[in-house]
Amino acid sequence: MLASPAQNCQSLWRMNAHPFRDPPKWLKPRARGLCFCSWICCLVMIPQFAVLAAVSLDPGDPAPALNPAKWLKGVPINRFEPGRVYVVEFWATWCGPCKANIPHLTELAHQYKDRVAIAGISIWESSDPTDLSYLQKVENFVQQQGDGMDYHVAVDGPQNEVAKAWMAAAGEKGIPASFIIGKDGRIAWIGYPAKLGDVLQQVLADKFDVPAARSRRDMDLKMVRPLDEAMTAKDYKRALELIDEIVAQQPNLAPAHAYNRLLALYHIDLDAGIALSSQILAEANHDIGAYRMMASIFATQADLSPAAYKFGQKLMAEALKKDEMTYLFLAMNADLCVNMGDKAGAAKNQEQAVAAAQKDSHAPPDFIESMKKKLAKFKAAL
Question: pTM above the 0.85 mark?
């Protein structure tokens, strides 16, 4: 069950990832394989699961053991055999981009059957350490995939042991995330699945420069970690300064920081935020994904100004006219109303969201049920 407007919205825009038809210039560096909206979905894991800590797992380090709660498919990988390459990808059943990458992993598993072992480890399926019901849900999902998910699959336990040993240790805050383990049993590469195929070829050919990969990643983490801390502390002035520093050194990272820049500007410089929003929408040809990224901010942030929320409502209205993902925007609009203190508006929009979702074949049944429960909560508050 969704516990808060932020969590509700996060789940909303994790689902049904929709790629830009013609990625704008500021988007293209991150547009290979995974769309901008899919990548943004990864970021929303930060407040719910991530803990800012020292990174202790880098390329070149020995790979941690895999000790999941249960192996659901394939032979358990109890150790990394010398001379064999492994791919470990972290995913979840609620993660649209993760599910979209399943066919690619199956393709790689078939292509490198005798040389690479691929394992998909389901993590972050529940934020309740006492909840075990998700285990059966994940197992059912894997069974439903059949041969379409043709590689080793496991699920992490409720204490997130594997996620902590791998994702948290590596400073990775979002999924899907891929790790390649080289023939020496050490981490060769950590990154987004979009580059997995290319890097895997280099690792197999013994041509991948692991020290260089470690240096690049250390630099990225060194630059990004203070930004994470500033955003968590709501020090938006400092966050914008850090974003400017990062983009000045690596201009190709500008699209990666569009979400944080907008979030900060909506808080402390609304006019600049509105101007940037207009620029992004124009460059994205007013794609629905760009609207979703922006709308999610107004649905998840409870401390914006009335003027900011008014602008958020304008964006929602524009998005709804496109008649795409209608139930998602109505539900986000309901959360926006909650943030504004508009109980009647929240109930009205949530009711419309439920009705729209019931007519949308892409709306997951379990999510519709959670929306209904939230609607009852909104009505009870009137």
Answer: no
